[in-house]
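Thread: Modeling a multi-component assembly for a lab meeting

Hi all, long-time lurker, first post. My supervisor asked me to bring a structural picture of a complex we are working on to next week's group meeting, and I have zero experience with this. I have the sequence lines for every component (1151 residues in total). Could someone generate the structure of the whole assembly? Inputs are pasted exactly as I received them:
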Amino acid sequence: MRLVVVMPFAMLALAGCQREERSLRLDPPVEAGLDEVRVMSNGIGGAPPKVYVALGRPYENNAFDLDQGKRLYDWFGCTGCHAHGGGNTGPAFLDGWWQYGADPVSIFVSIRDGRTAGMPAFGRYLTTEQIWQLTGYVQTIGAYSAKTAAPSRNDEMQSRPSENRAPATLGALQPPSR
Amino acid sequence: MRPRLKALLGAACALPGASCVGWQSTLSPQGPHAESLLRLIFAFAIVCALVWILVVAMLAGALMRRRRISREPLASRPREERRLGMLVGAATAATVVVITGLTVLSFVATRGLEASHDDALKLRMRGYQWWWEVTYLDPRPDRIFLTANEIHVPIGRPVEIELSAADVIHSFWVPSLAGKKDLIPGRDNAITFTATRPGVYRGQCAEFCGLQHAHMAFLVIAEPPEAFDGWRRAQLTDASAQTTSEEERGRGVFTQKACAACHTVRGTSASGSLGPDLTHVASRRYIAAGLLESTRGSFAAWIADPETLKPGSNMPNVPLTSDDLRDVSAFMASLK
Amino acid sequence: MSTLDISSDPRDTGLDERALARRLADLWQTPRGIIGTLSSVDHKIIGRRYIVTAFFFLLLGGVLALAIRIQLAKPENRFLAPDLYNQVFTVHGANMMFLFAVPVMEAFAVYLVPLMIGTRNIAFPRLNAFSYWIYLPGGITLWVAFALDMGPDVGWFAYVPLSGPQYGAGKRADIWAQMITFTEVSALAVAVELVVTIFKQRAPGMSLDKIPLFVWSMLVTSFLIIMAMPAIMVASTTLILDRLVGTHFYNPAEGGDVLLWQHLFWFFGHPEVYIIFLPAVGMVSTIVSTFARRPIFGYLPLVLALFATGILAFGLWVHHMFVVGLPRVGESFFTASSMAIAVPNGIQIFCWLATLWDGRPVFKTPLLFVIAFIITFVIGGLTGVMVASVPLDTQVHDTYFVVAHFHYVLVGGAVFPLLGAVYYWYPKIIGRMMSERLGRWVAGLVFVGFNLTFFPMHILGLIGMPRRVYTYGPEMNWGSINLFVSLSAAILAAGFLLFFVDAIRSAFSGEPAPENPWNAPTLEWATSSPPPSYNFERIPVVSSSDPLWETPETLPVATGLRTDRRELLLTSLSEANPQARESSPRDSIWPFLAAIATTVMLISSIFSAWAVVWGSVPIAVTLIAWFWPKGTPEDAA
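Re: Modeling a multi-component assembly
Sure thing. I ran the full set together rather than chain by chain. Output:
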């Protein structure tokens, strides 16, 4: 009987331990290591840095990092072109169609180095950790499955339903009709 | 136990012996608002202490008085009961009188604190996690300027501060000058106070606002009107020109690296608005909302590792070479 | 069971003592084994579990308090990082309020009220079992989350927007909100049981003017719970909705309001203080009367003061919001009402003093705690008058002055009487006496330690130290007082440690307790220590508010209850005239299973809104099984 009580908590423990941790300070060597992404020659896709994998891909699962990413998204004007994921002059994230690749490395590189179609390079303004945080958050906007660790809505006017209510796309992937 | 009030008064008097004479203390008021509040606190404290002494005396009397021979618990003694009933009734009536008196005193004090001023100095403070943005307002747009974490006020002139919050609830509190008032997202509040004596008074956020609630302080510097006008004119100017090549290079680092994305230094290309305005940062006494005194060393320490000094702060650890760090801290220290 | 011939005469009228005791024991006893343990509906077993669990949470919360004191002992201490500190003080506050203070008071009521009013079990005993099984996982949730670095870090008041979707990252605030749901469901259940028990199950003759004062205080408390807790359940549920499914209750940009949260929270939060304090008032009245060796002076004024406090408690929540910028007229009203509540509290103090004055005090440990209570609580009440004044409050609000104030009220006003109550009722509950010698040490250490710890905090607040700061600079001059406070906290902790040692030790090797060791006047002392599963062999009949003093030798009893099913005597509301015999439910495992199902639903709904849908299926199944008519004797009314 006691096992019944303990089991859910044990499962919670496994799921929760990394998700809620708040690492407020990244060691500079680790941060430097996080910058070393290896990208394919066409600029899309590649291998994440070893440190990133060794840390357990924190920027995709950690609630605090995802939340920080969301704040950066607002602060650094991402909404100007991408709105809250709906897209404007920049492409949308919600439709699940990624022109330059949906994997973290591609998104990271898009933010850091910019893209030819008009995406400016933010590497100058953001630290590597911040770019990773943004990467994680941007991925959750276009998520194919809802993420528990993902942050919820903003305290401002909404342009779409709250973010972790449901997967952004459920149907087959199609290029946006523009 | 008994001389508690004395202990309280004693502690209040002993404090000025220390170096920073109660610069954030209800007990060292520096303006009419705080003074009347302190009078109110003392009035209440004295009444309450008297009541407490009376109750404890009654308790001691009840426990220690001599008693005649024992009797049955249920022995009926209507006369005794009536006498006790009258005593309890009298004590209750006294309670009502005291409470009514204190309530009236409180209302009177509230009235005294309410007064409108036409000639008030107007500014706006906006709470951010975890710093204060200050805007000095003026009918002439070219006399409006932005600063952070430190306000100067002329003595003798009422100051009216519009309070708003950018993210979560904060609370404005300078105990030496006035009571506190919350900064609430979606609502506008205001607080008025007057400083009567020149001095440096510390304020601190009083509503829990997250990781660095403890490090969200600001200073109020009260100075004679002439000095205030001089300060205000200086604040209106752009950042002072760099004199050494080190500072010059630091300016280059500042505008090229991530710094400029969040901070403004008027007179340079740095015009970010996420962090405090740094145009005259070296003229302020503290950096990072009351965390460090603004020396060049502190600038370097803060820029090199903000997350160790103030964990959770939104200022990131920006990777800089040691040369860059030296130059940029020289540049910061030059922003008088 | 086998040897009994129950068909002949099911009534207890003709049975002799021994035969009756055997039949009743067979009927009321909780079955053995783990299933039996989990299915027990005996109010004494559940009450005891509640008390032990609540004190365990007190111990855990106390450890956190010490961690806070270590961190603040010196300026710029690095014992706790800010993130951990925020979790620590939040969990400390939430734990003490929701997992210790409210449950422990209700626990004493669950145990004592049926005994004090002379009945055999609480009303709705299965609901009672359910309430415990839902309280326990609520507490475990909070502490497991804390252990996983997932503990709430938004303060026990969880103000939005800090706890809202945008600033409360992760699931920490949801854990807080859902823990509230657990404890409030359990508190509401107990409150309903108590009201019905007190209204309908009193011993014959126990008219309204003869109800023991502890029972009166629990009646008022139960009504406070029933009226206050829905506000916080609405608040915590809407917070979860805001966070999980993107509603906008507290979002100013979309027509919500952050102050709405504060109103809802404090509409519950202030009565909460009285939910904790009023039972303590009842305990004090009981202890004072017993140890002053005379009936309580001013029974009627005391009861009326309870009612006045209970009603006024709902009219002063805004005094927690004096600095948010509300209109002046409103603030003035709440100043007046906050001040006014001092009057009924004053009446209570004066009545106790009069009782002690006129009585012949016997200085046993429980009375020592009452003396400590009066000295300390009066300070808390008076600083309460201070913070009720709007202008004064603008200086002390959210400073250590307020920390001192509410610890004086809650620890001085409720925990001291509670410790006294433990020493007083321990012999009844456990059947052994606690140590009188250690008890005096405990009372002394706790009293001295408490005052040395918390009195200087008043001064800290006045010299500008705000609450909930994880550290402070050396330039603030708060270091020496804080160090003094932290050292004094060690004395306080030693007192509590000694208390736990005494309580555990006495359970095994204490002196066996007689039926009525204190020569107390109320009915719970009319049965053996500890009481048998059926409480009383025959239901006592009462003709005085102090029945055991009125008729010390033999109590008149009522007969005629059946012995082939669990049966209670129902009496009328005001005069307690016998009205009917009512069956009382047997033990059942289903409340436990229903609680498990509810727990699964509540925890899962932190993570997915769909859990409310699929999670309600097991709850429905367990509830149907729980209420399924089985054709047992109880089903007949």
